[in-house]
Amino acid sequence: MINLLQIIIVCITFALSLFVWLHSLFRSQSYKRNYFLLMQAMIIVYLFGYLLEVTSTNTEEAFTAVRVLYVGAYFVPVFTLFLIADHRNIKLHPLYIKTPMVIVALAIIIIMWTTKYHGLIYVDYYLIKGSFNRLVYTPGRLFSVIHHYPTACMIFAMGILFYQLKRWSAKYRKQIIVFIFCLAIPFVAEGIYIIGVIISPDAHPFYFTPYSMALMSFCLYLGVLRFNIFEIISSATIAAMENIREGFVLLDEESNFLSSNSAAEKILPAMSNLSKGESILSMPGWPDELKNMENDLVEFPVTEGDTRYYRASMSPVMSKKNVIIGKIFLFREITDNVNLMKELENAAYIDSLTGLYNRKHFTELALVDINRALRQNQTVYAAMLDLDFFKHVNDTHGHVAGDLVLRTTAEIINNTIRSYDLVGRYGGEEFVLLFTDLDVSEALKLMERIRENMEQCSIKYQDIEIRLTCSIGLARFTEDDSLDSSIKKADDALYAAKNAGRNMVKLYGTF
Which residues, other chains included, contact 88 with Cβ-Cβ below 8 Å and sequence gap of 6+? Predict the structure, then answer.
C-alpha cells in the first residue's frame, strides 16, 4: 500500500515537472530560459529513473533505472549553475569552464553505465522490495569522489548568489532570495536523508531528494512568474541587438541597469562592469546629457583618445496597463556628421589658409566686442597689419612659400595678442585686429611687440631663409565711429607707416 502511494506521489511529481517544462517552453521567449529548460529536462529524466526504480520487479530493472536516474542527477546541478551564472550576468567561459563541466558529468554517467564491468561506482547491488522499493549497493572506489561533484556545482551556484546579494539593488534582491530558497531545498532534503542514514544505517530511510528536485524547479518557476526573472525580451531580439551597430541599453523605470549589447559596451566600456539592478547614474562615464533625458534626441561626446560623437534616443517601455516599466536607450555614432558640420562652419567663419577668422566673421564678432566695451566704458582700438614687400616673396619663391609666410604671420600675431583679442585675415597679406581695455601707450606697445616678433622671425622654406617685416596702422574707436570707419582710420595709419619707410607702427592722428 505504501509503495503504491509512493508510486502515485512520484507520478504526480513527474507530471508536475513535465507541466513546468512545457509551460516554460511555450510561454517565455527569453533566451535566458534555455538553461532552465535543460535543467528541468534533466529533473524529468531524474524522476523518470526514480519512477522506474520504485516500480522495478527485479535487481536488473532497478539497476537500469538507477543508471537512467544518474543521467539527470549529474546534469541538473551543471545546468543549474549555468542558469544562475547566466542570469547574474557572470560569463562562464564556454571552452574552459562550461565544456569541461559537461564532459565531467558525461564521463561520470558513462562510468556508471559501465560500472558492472569494473565496479568503480557499485561493487555489488540488489533490489530491496517492501514499503519502498529501492536498489541497495556496495560503493566502489569512485563512489564518494563522484558524489561530491553535483554538491560542488550547487555550492558554487549558491556562492554566486550570496556574492551577488550585496551588490544588487533592493528591488532585485528578491529574485536572488528566490534562487537561494529554491537551491536550498535539495540541500535540506539530502541533509535529512543523510541524518536518517547516520541514525539508522540499516533502516533505509525515505529518499526525499527526487521530490526536492521537482519542488525546487516548481518554486523556481513560480518565482519566474512572480518576479519576471526571465526578462520579456526574445532571443531573436537579443541576437538582433548584438548584430546592429547602434548601442542598446535597457534600464528599469528607476534607471537601474538591466541589459546592454556589445556595441553599447564598446561606446561606454564601464557598462560591462555593471551588475543588474545597479543604478546607471553611478556608472563612471555615463554622459551628463543623458541623466535627465526625456523622449528626445540628445548628442553627447565620448573622449577615449580621440573624441567621438553620438546621438542618443530614449523610448519608454510600457506595460499592458500603460505604466512605464523600463527605458530603452539607443546610441548612434555621428562623428562623421559632426566633423562635417564643423568643417562647413569653419568654411563659413574661418580662413582656410591661416586659421584666423575670415573678414565676414571678424566683423560679426567685432561688433559684439565693441558694443560690450562701450557699455563698460572701455577703450577700443582697431589695427591693420600689412606685410612689407610680400609680392616679392611670391614672385621669387612661389605661392607655396607665400602661403607659408602668411601662416607664420598668423601664428606670430596669435601668440602675441591676448586670448580675448580679435584678429582676422582682411584679404591678401592684410590682417585686421580689434582689442579693448588698453590705453594708448599699451596699445602701441602691443603693436610694437608684433612688429618686433615679425622682424626677428626667420622662415625656412626648402633651403631658403625668408625674412619679412610688417607695417601696422593703429586707430582708436570714438563715439562717432562705426566699425568700418575705425578700420578705415587704421588703414590710413597703415599707409602712413608704409610711406614713412615701412617696418613701423603709426597711430592715426599723429602723422
Answer: 160, 161, 164, 275, 276
Q: Which residues in the chain are classed under CATH 3.30.70.270? A: 350-507
Q: Can you read off the three cell numbers belonging to residue 157?
A: 551556484
Beta bridge partner(s), residue 475: 382
417 secondary structure, DSSP code: S
pTM of the model: 0.50
Question: Residue 403: pLDDT band by 50, 70, 90 thresholds?
Answer: very high
Beta carbons of 433 and 357 less than 8 angstroms apart: no
The tens digit of pLDDT for each residue in 240-272 reads 566 677 888 888 888 888 888 888 888 888 888
Place of cell 540499516: 202
| CATH homologous superfamily for the domain 235-340 | PAS domain (3.30.450.20)
State CA 441 to chain mean position distance.
58
Cα 189 to Cα 205: distance, rounded to the nearest angstrom: 12
Pair 497, 475: CB distance under 8 Å = no
Alpha helices by DSSP H, listed for 350-398, are 359-375, 390-397
User: Cα dihedral angle (180, 186, 189, 195), rounded to 10 degrees?
Assistant: -90
Residue 453 · residue 478 · CB < 8 Å:
no
Which grid cell is 51? 519512477
> What would the pLDDT profile of 188-232 be if each residue is shown by its tens digit?
877 776 676 667 655 555 667 777 877 777 777 776 666 555 544
CATH number of 2-227: 1.20.1070
Contacts with 449 (C-beta within 8 Å, 6 or more apart), sequence order: 416
* CATH 3.30.450.20 segments of the chain: 235-340
